[in-house]
Design goal:
Blueprint lengths: L3 E4 L2 E4 L4 E7 L9 E6 L6 E6 L6 E3 L7 E6 L4 E6 L8 E8 L14 E4 L3 E6 L1
Parallel strand pairs: 2-11
Antiparallel strand pairs: 1-3, 3-8, 4-5, 4-9, 5-6, 7-8, 9-10, 9-11
């Protein structure tokens, strides 16, 4: 069973930046698509970004496109989310997740497509 541990959350002013990182255990990290999701209070968990198992393809939610960037380092077993030009509506708990199926990528995902989740890291953007 893979373990995913997020870090890098915090409090930032609107317009600022944060970089989230997710460290994965296990030797099969390189064959899985990874994703970032977020959940704000009172709302459902929503897709933010995803990256294919080899890092060659990425996809973003419309709400973060052009501001966030996902990257994957298969040598270090990490997947990062660089968040720029943050807005108060980006405030949420951010979760790292691993897709259920190895070597599968379609570019748009629902939370149920991912079978392993981290514990989450809080991001708060003040206005």
């Amino acid at each position: 069973q893979v373990q995913l541990v997020e870090s890098g959350g915090g409090l930032v002013q609107a317009g600022g930046s944060l970089r989230l990182s997710c460290a994965a255990s296990g030797r099969t990290f390189t064959i899985y698509t990874m994703g970032w999701f977020r959940q704000a209070p009172g709302k459902e968990r929503e897709f933010v970004a995803t990256i294919s198992w080899n890092g060659g393809s990425t996809s973003y939610a419309d709400s973060v496109k052009g501001r966030f960037a996902i990257s994957k380092d298969n040598a270090k077993n990490t997947v990062d989310l660089q968040m720029n030009f943050l807005k108060p509506e980006d405030t949420a708990v951010y979760y790292c997740a691993r897709h259920r199926v190895p070597r599968h990528y379609s570019g748009s995902y629902l939370p149920r497509d991912f079978g392993s989740w981290g514990q989450g890291t809080q991001v708060t953007v003040s206005s």
